[in-house]
Amino acid sequence: MIVAMQMCSGVCADENINQLKQLLLKLPKTRPLLVCLPESFLVFGKSGQDALAVAKQSDYYQQQLSALCRLHDIWLAAGTLPISANNDRYFAASLLFNSSGEVLAQYNKIHLFDVDVADGTGSYRESNFTQAGENVVVVDSPFGKIGLTVCYDLRFSGLFSALQRQGAEVILVPSAFTTVTGEAHWQPLLKARAIETQSYVIAAAQAGQHENGRATYGHSIIISPWGDVLSELANGIGFIGCQPDLNQLHAIRRDMPVQSHQRFREHLL
């Protein structure tokens, strides 16, 4: 089973860990279980400096997450947490832990959110403090082959195609979408990526009004390889879940083999 958790993270990492601990107590008993967290679950700061400070303690927080995996016997896709890249930048890193607390993969967010949005914040410049990643990451798991992405990556179909070509069957999209862009584009983009790659798409989101002044869209969602919405949580803190049917996924890919029909493969990642 796979669960997408919706959170409303603040500026204090320890308080966000406590929020996560309370949510984990409410998990279903089904095992194996993969818990997916949203982008910036550990710290949703007022500036990149807040994340840089937490990045210097990333080993400490990774140890806490590892312990939670062992305690609850869960796999954990840790949305993003800041991990130092050099003295003045950090990676927005998505870590995948197994139920023994081992880190199996680290995906560093490739596409950085440097845009202007007609909301209360107005301007976003992730590249001021965040170091862009370079590697496409797919990991074997009991839940299928998992492809890792983060939030703004959703707008770049080439990355998703690259994940599918590397065997991804379940693609994670931990996010902190603004309310403006979320209302306009969130579900259409997620559905498109699921249909194009014929994969399950699991999008755990931040939701609500945050301590840093930002407002996020929420609407954590799970979409099937056929583009059906299997579960959605519009607002508030909580979680949704599904049991992926990989037999159905393989049947969809067999009956409509779009990847083998792809005529522009050489132009993709």
Our estimate of the beta-strand percent is 25-35%
Widest sheet: strand order?
5-4-3-2-1-16
Main sheet properties: 6 strands, mixed
Gyration radius from CA atoms, angstroms: 17 Å
The number of helical segments is 7
Helix content bin = 25-40%
What's the N-to-C terminus distance? 30 Å
Uncertain runs are none
What report would you give on this structure?
With 269 residues, the chain is of the alpha/beta class. It is built from seven helices and 16 strands. It is globular. The model has no long low-confidence stretch (mean pLDDT 96). Pfam families: CN_hydrolase.
Secondary-structure blueprint:
Blueprint (H helix, E strand, L loop, with lengths): L1 E5 L6 H12 L9 E3 L11 H8 L2 H15 L2 E12 L2 E9 L5 E6 L5 E3 L6 E3 L12 E2 L6 E3 L8 H9 L4 E3 L6 H19 L2 E4 L3 E3 L5 E3 L2 E4 L5 E5 L4 E5 L3 H10 L2 H4 L8
Parallel strand pairs: 1-2, 2-3, 9-10, 10-11
Antiparallel strand pairs: 1-16, 3-4, 4-5, 6-7, 8-9, 11-14, 12-13, 14-15
What key phrases describe this protein's structure?
single chain, 6-stranded mixed beta sheet, alpha/beta, 16 strands, 269 residues, 7 helices, globular
Describe this structure in a few short sentences:
It holds the Pfam family CN_hydrolase. The chain has helices at about 15-25, 50-55, 60-70, 155-165, 180-195, 245-255, 260; strands spanning about 1-5, 35, 75-85, 90-95, 105-110, 115, 125, 140, 145-150, 170, 200-205, 205-210, 215, 220-225, 230-235, 240.
